[in-house]
Amino acid sequence: MQAVLACFQLKQNNERLIDFIGYNTKRVANRLTDTTDEKLLNFVHNTQLLKDEWASSATHTAELFRLAQEQLKSLNRIAEWEPDWIVYPLYMCALQLFKIAEALDRSAEASSQTAKPGDLKQEGYLTQCGRTIHMSLNLCLKDRDPSATNKRYGAYYFALLLFKAYHKLRAHGLITNMVKVLESRSKELPSVQSAFGNRRAFTVTYCYYLGRYYACRKSDYAKGFHWLNMALMDCHTSYKNQQRQILVFLIPIAFLTNRWYPRNHVLNKCDPAKAGIDYRPIKTALLQGNLALLDQQLEHQQLPLLTRDLYLPFSHLRPYVILRLVKLVWKHNHSNWKLPTALIATAIAFASKNSTTTTTAATSSDKSPANDVDADLLDRTECLIANLINKGFVKGYLSHGNRVLVVSKTEPFPRLVRKNAI
């Protein structure tokens, strides 16, 4: 116990303190006799009660959660006046609370299957856990110590736990609020890498969650790619499962940001049986301009895409498939700078119904003159083409009166695919 007291007196963290915090470690018999600090005595008392509860029950109970919550709150009160050394012990308390809450919520979910109609649903343990950990986050953010020993870097540690908790709760609004707070304080906070130091696993996990947020919730694919790519670069090559989790999100975001097609060795790392999503047919649809195949995959993989919040990013792939079709029609039309809208409309209609290689759409489209194509279909096709022009995918303009797409003679289709690829 004196070794624990020495940590607070010398302002240094060590393994004895971390071991003392754990609820499943042996109870320390000695009492604190060299201090009258009520906050410290309260923390020690709560920790000892936590250990006693685990020793008597040997399982996760509501009382164990309550005591772990009290332990974190009591250490929060101590940490308010401590420098940066307290951050990691505080994080270990919060992590312990998170794991207990996670286990209790799993048990509650299993027992809820036998609940009777009309029973009131109780607030989840993860929800309560999130509120308590958020206090630790605020405590670090509000540290106004100008010296290098302030606790502000600790905000990343507790944000990491809150990312995990909020994702399990599907509390996207809370994630948005937290990220906004971190963004507003970005000038006061150190970089993610310097905050986590040599704890690379922390850096990888934080960048992964932040990349998911920007890409899937805000449709900011540039920021999403930045953070997901950072997570992949920092992830050790031996951690295959973690790499696969990152690539599930990075593959579509890399295409939407930099137009990078995934190479085969990257796709091999994303085994559909383990990743839950099969990217090979989607890549084929993009290369062939196969709208039917893309729509088929969006429908077939709808549940895993929705579960991972990837449905919206995948729906944004559609303009690239249409662009591929327009290129095919343009080439079949002998690269003429005047391209009848009817040819494109016919190719799109064909590709939307047929799942075979869509090159045949372009070869058959010359048999459909403009006056044989429905005017409504032509209008919808012009809207699609106008969208491509607006995005900078096509250089040219539409002549609505003549129902013709006039493209640039020098560079009708600006190069979108960069040299690099994942």
TrEMBL record:
Annotated Gene Ontology cellular components are:
euchromatin
By sequence similarity, the record places it as follows: Belongs to the CSN12 family.
Q: Which InterPro entries match?
A: Csn12-like, PCI_dom, WH-like_DNA-bd_sf
Recorded protein name is PCI domain-containing protein
Limits of the PCI domain? 375-409
An example of a GO molecular function for this protein is: double-stranded DNA binding
Which lineage is the organism of this entry classified under, starting from the top rank? Eukaryota, Fungi, Dikarya, Ascomycota, Saccharomycotina
A GO term (biological process) for this protein? cellular response to pheromone
